[in-house]
Amino acid sequence: xxxxxxxxxxxxxxxxxxxxxxxxxxxxxxxxxxxxxxxxxxxxxxxxxxxxxxxxxxxxxxxxxxxxxxxxxxxxxxxxxxxxxxxxxxxxxxxxxxxxxxxxxxxxxxxxxxxxxxxxxxxxxxxxxxxxxxxxxxxxxxxxxxxxxxxxxxxxxxxxxxxxxxxxxxxxxxxxxxxxxxxxxxxxxxxxxxxxxxxxxxxxxxxxxxxxxxxxxxxxxxxxxxxxxxxxxxxxxxxxxxxxxxxxxxxxxxxxxxxxxxxxxxxxxxxxxxxxxxxxxxxxxxxxxxxxxxxxxxxxxxxxxxxxxxxxxxxxxxxxxxxxxxxxxxxxxxxxxxxxxxxxxxxxxxxxxxxxxxxxxxxxxxxxxxxxxxxxxxxxxxxxxxxxxxxxxxxxxxxxxxxxxxxxxxxxxxxxxxxxxxxxxxxxxxxxxxxxxxx
Length: 439
Prior knowledge:
The structure is a single chain. The protein is an alpha/beta fold. The chain is built from 12 helices and 16 strands. This is Aldehyde oxidAse and xanthine dehydrogenase, a/b hammerhead domain protein.
């Protein structure tokens, strides 16, 4: 207990605020080359040909990599351990682009300026396929070749408690919430530097990632390099919020380093990061709750339709994590859950700070507000009737919630917000006004 309750400075805070911290984009190695990526210009199709002649003719260009001269091995951006069962559907460079921003080729050059200039000289001929931008479009059969197993990348159906409990005397409340996608917009964009140690044929990857062992596993398997010859150096991170726990730029940089046998640097600009990495998923959440007349929840049914984007990634844990959020704050003793992650021709979705908590909470709170309105119960009171109390157990895991203090938080919020005064003012306003009402 020597450190509990005391304040200690963050070890790298001074370096960051003074500009002395070194990020991966600041790394400069001898004889280092630079990478620029050619991204798919269409949402779905097949690459018929790639003409990189003019790019290779540009002075300072070292090499151009594409699907036809790079490893054919596949990987999953979310596979962090060998024992994980995950479909391997991605390639370093694809000849079957699934979204605008899917990497198709890369230029390695003496400078970043030359590399970016050369990328614009690459010409790609496509056969375009039908595409779907929403989960509903994908499920309608608009696309049939985005994946070998169809558009649904993961589905989870779970029941906790009694799904057949009698709810005849209950009031049924259904709310549907559209959750919009968001990009993390970390100050530091996605970036990576790779070096090769020729003394022992090992690869050194400098990356501001959230899982050094996950990247090592991926690089080792993808490029068939023994684990002990892959070293991951986690550099100072300029923000992630979940965006850098999947391996997106690292495979490209390693492929380029192995090709040219030189250190390489890849730094995405803001547009490239937004188009080609990951974002929070768009989704439709439908929640049906069954309330007793006095405002207690008897059963909850949840249907989540999640737009996963072009690749499976973390589809299974995404919808599973969403389910876990439906039994932490409120006493949902009987839950029927259906979650589906659907592949579409949009950038891949993934972890976002407070992963699925905000999406679930938004759906639940909208449902509670609607229930309070229909039942004629104060919105605060209906929450107090159903909130979990400290020491109660999570119905899904059986683990005690210990000092959850949900009730105390609601009461404190009620006090600080001056709920009773505001509610009274609203009621008086609505009595006076005929055409305008406050909600």
